[in-house]
From TrEMBL:
UniProt KW keywords: DNA-binding
Organism: Natronosalvus rutilus
Top-level taxon of origin: Archaea
Protein name: AbrB/MazE/SpoVT family DNA-binding domain-containing protein
InterPro entries: SpoVT-AbrB_sf (IPR037914)
GO MF, any single term: DNA binding
Lineage of origin: Archaea, Methanobacteriati, Methanobacteriota, Stenosarchaea group, Halobacteria
Amino acid sequence: MTDATLDDRGRLTLPKALRERYGDHYHIAQLHDGIKLIPIADDPLEALRDEFAGVEKTTSELREEAREAALDEAGR
């Protein structure tokens, strides 16, 4: 974990190692107990292709699995 401090203008500077690893663009998600920085890929479509490159199921199969999981989690 790394600490960072806002400057007098409210800017946060991320350490170089984090910028090199995650990039320069982030979504800021406000959570009930803090915030979360979520890196934004330079090419989001390419990032999705890379993420799902090994998936051999169709979108319909994935959608059905997600639906079943949501119903199970809700207690059917």
